[in-house]
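Shipment paperwork, digital attachment
Item: protein structure file
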Amino acid sequence: MTKTLTTIPQYLIEDALDAAGWDGDYATVGDNTYSGRAMYGMRCASITFNTLPDLARFMFELGVVAHEADDEENLTPLVRALQTDSMGTGLVAYFPGYIFEG
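Attachment content:
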């Protein structure tokens, strides 16, 4: 069975990271190849953060950017899809069923 993936516009992610004032030292955008817990090899969008507060700040800015771009319709399902894995010295936020595009 193949699951259809929903796209997340890349500009929303980049604009939210820019609004948070990050330059790559705090967050790294993945390349749609992350496979988290219980995903059984399926791949999805991911962003690696240094800390949980960094993730919270990004999610806040993502909401602001989506609102300003009048592109909010898929934001609630995206936020609900959010999962995290601890990597010892960082945190990966991943979005099962979603990929970054554009």
